[in-house]
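Our consortium's second objective concerns turning raw sequence data into structural hypotheses that experimental partners can test. To show how far this objective has progressed, the report includes one record in full. It was chosen at random from the queue rather than selected for favorable results. The single chain below, 228 residues long, was entered without modification.
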Amino acid sequence: MSGSRLRRVTTARMPTRWGMFNAAGFERQAANDIQRVDTALAIVMGDLKREAPLLRIHSQCFTGEGLGSLRCDCSDQLSMAMQAIAAEGRGLVLYEYQEGRGIGLMAKLRAYELQDLGIDTVEANHAPGFRADCRDYSLPVAILRELGVHRVRLLTNNPAKARALTDSGIEVVARIPCEAKANPYSLPYLRTKKEKMDHTLSLPYCEGTGRSKDLRAAAAHRNPTRVA
């Protein structure tokens, strides 16, 4: 995939509730699939060449961003990143179409069904044969190089994103937390990301004696007819 030619398709102004951004569309032939093209958006504000800009690499989450699902923190993280970039006046979001950590929307919904039966998000990916995280970050790396960005301050809780950039020659001068407040529906998901995927989440209200209480609350919300 890394050898495929990256093409900038178009750039347009993008007024948002956080301020004015420029949205540039990029595409590249998918690896080992001449019929498919990988696409991503670079949502940019300000001068990226000055010092190390804020960067959020964000994967599409239709359920959270489009339907308002409370099962994850994706929509909140995107809003937090856009707000932080606007407050500083420069930075970018690289928005990738890798729904469900790269497994796609239908597989993601099947994973939700398995989670409803009591297994966690990692186990729900493993059950049909997927890795816990199937995402590939070579397209964001290619876009950063095209934009002339070689040093960034990365908005993420996921150390794997920082390693992927570093391993590809993009210097991560700082990794800045992007932690959204949990709700009863997202709490098990966030705890699994912390405990099984090494995400740097504080979840202070999940520790010690509060953990069982939070789990019971989450279970009651998922199964409202069940007596806690």
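The partners drew two points from this record. Strands lie at 7-16, 19-29, 37-45, 54-59, 91-96, 151-155, 171-176. Residues 206-228 have pLDDT under 50 and may be disordered. Both points have been shared with the crystallography group to help prioritize constructs.
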